[in-house]
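Listing S7. Sequence submitted for prediction.
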Amino acid sequence: MNIFEEKKIKVSEAVLALDLDGTLTNSKKEITENTKAAIDKFIKGGGTVVLASGRPTFGVSPVAKTLGLEKKGGYILAYNGGYFYDCKNDKELFMRELTHEYLPILEEQAKHFGVNLMTYNYDKAYALDIEEQYYMLEIKINNFIRVKVDPLAPQITFPIIKCLMTAPGDHLAKVEKEMKKLWEGKLNIVRSEPYFLEITEVGIDKANTLLNMTNKIGKDTKNLVCCGDGFNDLSMIQAAGIGVAMANAQEKVRQAADYITRSNDDDGIVDVIDNLFYWNR
């Protein structure tokens, strides 16, 4: 029996957490009109939407605006769980900074492993190498201003929530294993894409922040539905009442999910909204 037949959630009690890249947005980084309409229907039915992304807040906010969350209500989880924001009330509900003293060590390790390192401040992305291809991809996705800083640590005096290492996927997979050993118990190290290695404080990931904030906004975590495609979505998919992987998700993510929906290029989120919830009568 399909999980949607075994277990449906009342829409007015549901929290729908949506990863952005590869999940909510298609390959062109756009939200289709069908997906917009389905999300609008979900919100009008009383459902709560959380945009749950590894992107910095500056990169998530335009998506929230496209969906009208500042008027309709909804939340942003940014920096892979380091920040949580109430769109309608324009209020920060949670932030966890990265320990600043770690930055020079991370910079030294980035140079040792031969990878790029970057961090963020509002609309600017500071990096050791601002010509590197995956840094440029991050710039394109979020529309950041490029800022070259080498050495990085002495010039970063503002609060930081997340750092990002970038490199080709095969190499970064090896770096990820080494970094997890080096920072065990101090930092959370996870890839969002094969070429993006996310670095946040220990205990900061999408799952922990979603579970804590779902309770804080008065919802039950058993009614949490999480949709994603990347390695950094794995924790929230495993923690959700129902975890949903996109058809285009990484194999490990698909294996962990309760349900595999259509791809991000085939309105997979519409399929979730149409089939997972039952509507108030």
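Caption to Listing S7: primary sequence and predicted structure tokens for the chain studied. The first strand starts at residue 9 and ends at 10. DSSP finds eleven helices and 16 strands in the chain.
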